[in-house]
Each structure stands twice: as C-alpha cells, then as structure tokens.
Amino acid sequence: MGPRRLLARFSATGSPLSPGVDPSAGPVFQQPPATKTGHEMNRRIRVTAILLAAAAFSLVGRVTIAQQPPQDPQNWSEVKCSRYKKAWSEALTRRGSEGLGQDFIARHEAFLASGCTARADVCPRSPAELELANIMVLLAMNAGTASTFLPFSCRR
C-alpha cells in the first residue's frame, strides 16, 4: 500500500489509533495551556529562595551574637566574677551555712575578694561543702563561666 493510498484510507476512515479523526486537521494531541510561563515560575522560585536565605542568615547572625562574650577580656572577667558573686550569695541565702567549715568559707571569700582571680584552693571536705560546691558549679556554668574559672580544688 502506497503513501497516497494509505493517506486516503486514513482520511476517509480516520486513524486506526483514533477513529474518526482527520490526520490532515493537525496534531491530535495538544499541550494544555500553561498557567505560568517559565520565566514567571523561575522568578517566583528565585524570590522564595532569596527570602528563605535572608531569614536563615538573620537567625544565624542573632545566635552567633548572643553567644559571644563582651570583647574586652578584663571586662568579661569582671562580669563573670559579678555573676559568680551573686550566685554565691543566693546559694548561701537559700541553703544556709550549716555544715560549712570556717576554712571553706574563708577561702571562698578570699577568692571573691580577689576579683575571682586568686588561685583555686577552696577544698570541699564535708558533705555539705561538697553539695554547695556542686551547686556553685552548676550555677557558674549557667552563668556562662568556664569550669577553669571555679575556685574548687583539693591538693594533697
């Protein structure tokens, strides 16, 4: 069967795949109308990505700034000592000094009087002193000081 005869047959009867459709009338399948052009979609995606990136960077910047101590190291030492003194005073007020030895209290007061720069030599010996030292470690950590800041040490 030649091409003309085949075309005449499909024109008269329609396509075997699509009966009643005239192949000379144009394509059988049409693309659905686009709701947005490619340019409009790309623009929306870019704007969304830029807004998300800006939001992420603003949050990261705030977290980093909040975690940084003051820039002046001497000032930061004073701030740490002030926070520690306040925590010590509150812990003594709440807990009381029962069970604390005079040596423990005197050495700790000397540490505070030095601006929290004296050598760590406050040794908790009794259960009450150890309890207060543990409380102070937690309070100091919550106040943002490092574990090397604390005055507790027992030398032999």
Using brief descriptors, characterize the structure shown.
156 residues; mainly alpha; 5 helices; elongated
Topology diagram in text:
Elements: H1 3-13, H2 38-67, H3 73-95, H4 102-113, H5 127-142
Helix pairs in contact: 3-5
How is this structure best described in words?
The protein is mainly α. Among the domains are: 37-68; 73-149, no CATH class. Helix content is 59%, strand content 0%. Helix 3 packs across helix 5.
Low-confidence stretches: 13-18
The N- to C-terminal Cα distance equals 111 Å
Count every helix, treating DSSP H or I runs of 4 or more residues as helices: 5
Helix content: 55-70%
Shape: elongated
Number of strands: 0
Main β-sheet description? none
Briefly note the structural class of the backbone: mainly alpha
Percentage beta strand: under 5%
